[in-house]
Amino acid sequence: TSAGLNLLRDVIVDSNRFDYAFREYIRRWAFKHPQPDDFFRTMNSTMGENLDWFWKEWFFTTDKLDQAVTSVKYVDGDSARGALITIENLDKMAMPVIVKITDASGGSQVVKLPVDIWERGGAWTFKYPSTTRLTAVELDPDHVLPDENRKNNVWEGQ
């Protein structure tokens, strides 16, 4: 439970929203007998976001997370025209995606994709506006998500 709530606070929503919602839950339910659904509903309503996907997967299933980088191609074969990066969700748990993209100049950028991308299926391709060749694409570079197989989280260019 604590790992899930830390993940929610630090990765999925920001700490200000989470802390406000948690304080509101304590205020509403102090000296009462709340059930788990009372907590989930209060957090959803006070954060202004439907997190049912998170509550379900984190607290009511034993699904696992396995995100992978499956391909990196350049638009029309030209790295200056952008890169098409394909990622997959290989298991049943859905989580947001954190992607660190490093280019040939040594610069890097972190791109965050919402959990909603998985509503359309298990694979997602997005265009990254590269101007030079990419040398690496890494999912969850800080290892904050409970990914089961980190070996498929990295793509390294030639």
Your description of this structure?
With 158 residues, the chain is an alpha+beta fold. It is 29% helix and 27% strand. It is built from four helices and seven strands, in the order ααααβββββββ. The strands form two sheets. It has a four-stranded antiparallel β-sheet, with no helix packed on it. A hairpin with an 8-residue loop joins strand 1 and strand 2. The protein starts with a helix and ends with a strand.
Task: Outline the fold blueprint.
Blueprint: H1 2-12, H2 15-29, H3 36-47, H4 52-59, E1 67-74, E2 83-89, E3 97-103, E4 108-113, E5 123-128, E6 134-139, E7 154-156
Antiparallel strand pairs: 1-2, 2-5, 3-4, 3-6, 6-7
Rg (CA only): 18 Å
DSSP strand (E) fraction? 25-35%
- Write down the overall mean pLDDT: 96
> How are the strands ordered across the major sheet?
4-3-6-7
Count helical runs: 4
Shape: elongated
- Mind describing the biggest β-sheet? 4 strands, antiparallel
**Span from first to last CA?**
41 Å
Helix content: 25-40%
Instruction: Enumerate the spans where pLDDT stays under 50 for 5 or more consecutive residues.
Output: none
Topology order in helix (H) and strand (E) letters:
HHHHEEEEEEE
Say how many strands there are: 7
Which structural category do the helix and sheet elements fall into?
alpha+beta
Please give a handful of descriptors for the protein shown.
158 residues, alpha+beta, 4-stranded antiparallel beta sheet, 3-stranded antiparallel beta sheet, 27% strand, elongated
